[in-house]
Amino acid sequence: MKFEDLLLETGGFGRFQILILVALCLPRINLPMHFLLHNFIAATPSHHCAIPHREAFVNLTMEEVLLISIPRESDGTFSSCEMFSQPQFHLLLNSSLQSENKSSVQRCQHGWVYDHSQLTSTISTQWDLVCEQRGLNQATATFFFIGVTVGAVVFGYLSDRFGRKTMLLLSLVCSVVFGMLSAASVSYSMLAITRTLTGVALSGVSLIVLPLAMEWVDIQHRTFTGIVSSIFWSVGNMLLAMVAYLVREWHWLLVAVTGPCLLSIVCLWWVPESARWLVAKGKMKQAHRHLLRCARMNRRKDFAVSPEALTRMATDKKPGGSYFYISLFRTPVLRKISLCSGVVWFGVSFSYYGMSMNLTGFGLNIYLSQFVFGVIEIPAKMIMYVMVNRVGRRQSQAWTLILTGLCIGANVVIPKSFTSLRSVVAIMGKGFSEAAFTTVYLYTSELYPTVLRQNGMGYTSFVARLGGALAPLVFLLDEVWRSLPEVTYCSVAVCSGAVAFLLPETLNMCLPEGIEDVE
């Protein structure tokens, strides 16, 4: 008897599974509020050099003061990072003139003045992370994703060793602690360290929530569970836009997005440990207790499987044996799956965060752009619900990634003047990107056996977070060539999409329990 047959005897997909999904929705909603928080706490408003001795120009308007103090860029806007060493009063007579003496232009000497009309306070304005310090601003997202990368390795192993629920609780508690410490940061160094540790903690939530839900549902409802869980991510995306719109000060915004983790901890007390994991680890009495509870809640009074029957059903001769990340590469089929899925996860994450962290250029403010990006994800997920069951996981994964890359590449060649067309193509690309992310979570959880599933998810999440960590830094390549970031995102997405064709199909297949099932 396979574990899927056992689930059917407990009612398959009933009230028990629905309640698990509902209980796990809150941590899933909370994830994007932290993962995309960089868009708001590190947003850089328009700014210019602070002008010394402002009181000497009392007879001039602000526009005139800027005219004689700040050089203009080629597009006519005032420079953000340069100022005149001496006031250029002759520009008052003819503003179209430019100072011919290049030596009169210098970098900002007295700090910056920021436009606070949209953002009251960000880390950019608090610590002047602009111009020469722009790299440090982008690095805050990289630090966070480095933490997520480390956490993927740590929690992937620990959740296979000590259980899904225990590690999920631990990661939520740590998320609250480090999230609040981030909000209390008094220096850039403190923020960088606490955001990195927050990333480590939240990685456990990201890694465990979906497999914990998936291991309690039957084959027929696996896709539904994966899509519904993914929709909660999109809801979090939209909620982030609304919360950030209401809370414009970065300290309090961090508090606002960390607080819901407390409610997640409360909800998690009801969620049972994965019976599939308990059986794989030889803990038959605990597994039997949870399965009995599941059958009763699903009104299946005829459930009569004993702990002894579970022992006979266990697929591994050493159910309590330990597996490590190296086990993912010891056998031929698992090795191929691990190498290919690593490339796919890197491409999915790299292109997704590359698009998600670029909220400018749509003619909308950053709050509306964030909300629109969240909204477009929901129909993308609905379409994927049909596609993964009709054309399969492999084709869906490959083509959504390739189409994401093509949309990013299209905006490289579409002229800047075609604003509406560029916006439509970008939003389509965001939809395909989210569809690829939705598919990869479902697909990967079906590729690995139960005894190695969390190790597999930990490994792929590790590779994905490397992509997430590099994505914000790629924006700095625009100093080499304006379109180089987009060309990079496009190339990686298309290449990783092609690699997805090498993975095996899992549509309508039983979840593998042991390594021999995969081989």
UniProtKB/TrEMBL annotation:
Transmembrane segments: 139-158, 170-191, 197-217, 224-246, 252-271, 337-355, 367-386
Cytoplasm as UniProt keyword: no
Pfam family membership, one: Sugar_tr
Annotated Gene Ontology cellular component terms: apical plasma membrane; basolateral plasma membrane
Subcellular location: Apical cell membrane; Basolateral cell membrane
Catalytic reaction(s) noted: GTP(in) = GTP(out); 3',5'-cyclic AMP(in) = 3',5'-cyclic AMP(out); guanosine(in) = guanosine(out); orotate(out) + L-glutamate(in) = orotate(in) + L-glutamate(out)
Keywords for this protein: Cell membrane, Ion transport, Membrane, Transmembrane, Transmembrane helix, Transport
InterPro entries in the cross-refs: MFS_dom (IPR020846), MFS_sugar_transport-like (IPR005828), MFS_trans_sf (IPR036259)
The protein, known as: Solute carrier family 22 member 7
Organism: Oxyruncus cristatus (sharpbill)
Gene label: Slc22a7
